[in-house]
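Handout, tutorial session.
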Amino acid sequence: MPDVDRPRAWLLTVDGAPQSYVDLDDPTHLEFEYVRRLAHVLDEAAAPGQPLDALHLGGGALTLPRYLAATRPRPRQHVIEADRGLLALVTEHLPLPDGPDGSGIEVHAQDARAALEEAPEDSADIIVADVFGGSRVPAHLTSVEYAQAAARVLRPRGLYAANLADGAPFDFLRGQLANFATVFTHLALIAEPSVLRGRRFGNAVLLASRTELPLAALARRVAGDAFPARVEHGAALRRMIAGALPVRDADAVPSPEPPSGAFSVG
């Protein structure tokens, strides 16, 4: 659907749920708050002007790959999207930027878990995961084995960032944190305070790394957004994880079904 306020901007919906927003004239214009939070993570993943090797699990309309191409020189980006029909629609109607250097974006029609397991070891500076089958994260992307696969692909100072969704009592989110705690030393969550307090179902960005996360810089950035968010880490996050166990492939389930209307558009 076109954005009537911006001449070359488009909203992509899947089964009535907003999936992606892209402004072809200005890839740095991000409408969705959780996408802005992921973009803040990309901004803080390395010093300004430093290229990043990025693996995007879930492509949608390629919003974040376009953003990274517009904000960093010569990024090398692999985008994994299992929905071939969606890829064909996006590449036909929302083409990638042209130019002598191109966009640095390579798109692959493949399952995210399979692509992760086939990716070379120590090949990515950042993995951005935003994979939903309908409105739920598929089960095979919610296990400790999946977290281990992500750790193998990341470089020693690499960063994992995932868009997840849950509500109180956060059984799914606590399990995801427990999974990543088995292989990463440093964890954080970025979400609106109302979500973290369990008042409503919503998005939460999970961060994981073997090295210190840029917590102070991220806290400043997300606090300044139109819908301010908080960075949860340290003791507060350990209390949230307490009692949660890693989830093996054999026991993995999709993320919870959102309440009716949670992410729908009119």
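The second record follows below. Compare its token runs with those of the first.
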Amino acid sequence: MTGKNKKVNWLCFLILSIYLLIVFSMTLVPYVGEYTYEQHYNLVPFLSIKNYWQSLQYTELINGGKLSMIAFINLFGNIGLLLPYGFLLPLTFPGRITFKRTVKSAFFITLFIEIMQFFFLVSRVADIDDVIFNTISAVIGYILYYIICHKHYKKYKYNKPNGKYFN
């Protein structure tokens, strides 16, 4: 690896580290708004997605309905939360991070966050749908990485095991 590549990798590592700190601070710091002391977990896949989608349909998001804004943030925020992670992780460690490793690590990061929310944060709801959406988000990020780096495949070919992006 040349000196220029090392600098790029360190820069990507720094960006990835800062990004992960932001993600953890956004998800593991208690919410200071309204607390709900009812059920603080959801183990039924797609239940909260269905509820948020219905909330978006029946309330007017454009008029600033509070419930619909929460639904919008939960639906689309979870889709995009780990997208940068799926892009930055293989970019930071070229040749060592595969598609499977990216997806597994995104799944376990999200699972860790949800378990911490369940046990330690009354102001947050641990939700299986967050795990699903965040993992899909990382997959989208990796696909973007693949598309962008595939254009320059010959340049990256020697940094990948067997010249493969997906393993």
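Points raised in discussion: The longest strand covers residues 41-42.
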